[in-house]
Amino acid sequence: MDTLTDTAAQVAHGYITEKDRYLARLKRIEGQARGIHRMVSEDAYCIDILTQISAITSALENVALGLLDDHLKHCVAGAIQHDGAEVEVKLKEASDAIARLVKS
Fold first, then answer.
1. What pLDDT, in 10s, does the model give residues 5-44?
2. pTM, to two decimals
3. Would you say the C-alpha torsion 2, 8, 11, 14 has a positive or negative sign?
4. Labelling 26: which of 8, 56, 57, 70 has CA 20 to 30 A away?
5. How far apart are the C-alpha atoms of 6 and 77, rounded to whole Å?
6. Is 43 left (phi over 0), alpha (psi -120 to 50) or beta?
7. How confident is the model at residue 87 (pLDDT cuts 50, 70, 90)?
8. What is the rounded average pLDDT of the residues 54-68?
């Protein structure tokens, strides 16, 4: 590989191969959020709104877990292969992301 290709490979994010799938999932989540907004606007039953909030929360958590998995498989594994010094940074990023996910 040439230097430009090496640099591009290091810059590309792990989710890039699944980008269209993530974008489609996020578009569905946007639609769910608009639906919740409409439900509140139309004075829907509170439990129905909470059910939809639960669904959108679960969908976002699934996206987050997928991105975390991609980070571990691509970014952390890439750091191990290409630049051992970056491994601790990438692991810390993953650990911090997990902590944020668990707190929410």
1. 444 444 577 777 889 999 999 999 999 999 999 999 999 9
2. 0.76
3. negative
4. 8
5. 15
6. left
7. confident
8. 95
Who's near 20: CB < 8 A, 6+ residues apart?
Answer: none
Three-state SS for the chain is CCHHHHHHHHHCCHHHHHHHHHHHHHHHHHHHHHHHHHHHHCCCCHHHHHHHHHHHHHHHHHHHHHHHHHHHHHHHHHHHHHCHHHHHHHHHHHHHHHHHHHHC
* Domains by residue range for the chain, with CATH: 16-103 (1.20.58.1000)
Long-range contacts (CB closer than 8 Å, 24 or more residues apart) made by 80-83: 82/6, 82/10
Q: Which two tokens stand for residue 47?
A: 């439990």
Nearest to 71 by CA among 1, 6, 12: 12
Please compute, for residue 50, the number of CA atoms within 13 A of its CA located in the half-sphere on the CB side. 3
| Residue 2: φ, ψ to 5° | -85, 170
